[in-house]
Amino acid sequence: MAQTIKGGERAIAATHKLLAKQRRGDPSIPEIHAVAIREQLGLAVDRVMAEGSLYAPDLAALAVKQAQGDLVEAAYLLRAYRATLQRIGTSKPIDTTNMVFHRKLSTTFKNAPGGNILGATYDWTHRLLDFSLIGESELPEETSEDAFSETEGTSPITSQSFSGTAMTRFMEPTAEPMGMKVADITEHPLSFPTTRDARLQALARGDEGFAAGLAYSSLRGFGRMHPFLSDMRIGDVVISLEIPEIAETVAIGEIVVTQCELVAKRVGSGTEEDPPRFIKGYGLSFGRNERRAMAMCILDLSMRTREFGDEPKYPAQDEEFVLLHLDNLDSSGLVQHFKLPHYVDYQAESLSIAELRASVASLDEETEEEAI
């Protein structure tokens, strides 16, 4: 328990001024504007939107600037702002089969409909520092328009495209909508055992590093997981809202999302109800967040263990372990709260240790007397 104390208001006011000065840096260097962060540090902005659970590129860029690039702190700022917003309605489910593609990839099906669209990716770079970016003031070398073209059209998830064919005869069928009310972890805290929709919501705004680390653990031996990338797509999707007064559904905007589907082998129990087959993991995130979406898929697959009647054996399969330690606001807050005053706690622990040592010393004396 953290014990707070009263006082230090002048010191706190002074540290706010020092923080603002540190954030500004050398005044002889032009200040970074939030719009520049939004346009040139887009992946950082996308991560903050995902972990802040709010799609607002301008506000996420502002949070990155205010937090001096600390993305966990920036996500905290955005999440706090989100808590002040009024909820005016619920949009219709987005249709990711009808997307303006920035990037589309399948490494499982060679003849995926529409082929692969590499788009902008670091996958094929050499990971060498580009020193030409230091002090860059000119625009990059022009590239042909074809390289920048985005693909618009309808493209079902790749595994669904081959539904009923030999290529997917061992594939878990795509679940049909059940008409059930979707969980909302922002209004109702997680309770265990959870439902899959609640798990996916928690994964979508959880800490990317923690999720990737747990996913990695299940790949390298703590889970025996070896999935295949069935479908990954990044692009613009339309947000639609149903207006009951006019009985119409209208488009109110577009957002960029990353969606991923992985498939993994399940040996099963050998019964008709649980035959050997490929099962599916799903991930979806705001912005361009491929690593997050893939980690979501792997953890989704791992945490479906109980769904198939098996007992969790590894950390990534334990939904309570994963979901209760996934949120970086919770983890960062508890880890850093030790910077707050703990004078009373320390004094209490010191008294406890003194009593324990006195008890041990007394026991030793009694033992010596019995020996004599």
Automatic annotation (TrEMBL):
One of its GO terms (biological process) is organic phosphonate metabolic process. It comes from the Bacteria. Residues 140-149 have a biased composition (Acidic residues). Residues 151-161 have a biased composition (Polar residues). Pfam families: PhnI. InterPro entries: PhnI. Residues 140-161 are annotated as: Disordered. This is Alpha-D-ribose 1-methylphosphonate 5-triphosphate synthase subunit PhnI. It comes from Rhizobium miluonense. The lineage of its organism: Bacteria, Pseudomonadati, Pseudomonadota, Alphaproteobacteria, Hyphomicrobiales.
